[in-house]
Write a structure and sequence with these properties.
This protein has 217 residues and is an alpha/beta fold. Helix content is 56%, strand content 12%. The longest helix is centred in the middle third of the chain and has 23 residues, at 128-150.
Length: 217
Amino acid sequence: MTNRVRVVVADDHAPTRQLVGEALEHGGFEVCAMVRDAPSAVRAVVDERADIALLDVNMPGGGVAAAGELARLRPGVAVVMLTVSSDDNDLLAAIAAGAVGYILKGVSGDELVRSLRSVLAGESVLPAVLVRTLLGAFRDQAQSSRLTQSVPRTASLSDREREVLQLLELDLTTAQMAARLFVSPATVRSHIAAILRKLQVPDRGSAVRLIRGHPKA
């Protein structure tokens, strides 16, 4: 007998559990448990040795919390979120907790089955509408990390001063920076003065060269 992929479906809406379970069984998966909350989902995945945990973000106990717990207790399971939420913060929290897929409710049964098979093939499944959000978050994180690691003195800068420093690196004028930040040119000049003082450099060009790793002209 062929071993089928075992899935735990966790959602507090009974009709949704039923529809999802039927779609997965029709697609060749084995639904080994259907539960309504996060603690039950974690127990079921561990007890049933499931291959995939399909979790609702907003079920009682929280799908993201369940994902984090499963990453600790059963790191081999593929955690996929099935949710109505297209909120950026929910997506980022789920990925950070260990989810490898984020599927918006409303997809067809066939689409759901294809998505789970993609996950089993080692792919991450994300809705196109949220991919740009995820890429932007990684880009911002990398940029912030580069500023802090390459120039330790930037650690003393405020969040707003970091924003101004990034705009300086783009060679924007004071007026252009003010327009971007929705502040007055005088406020931008004040931030620049603070940046130069904290970085211990004489002018804008020196500040830019410093964060790029070229302290000398």
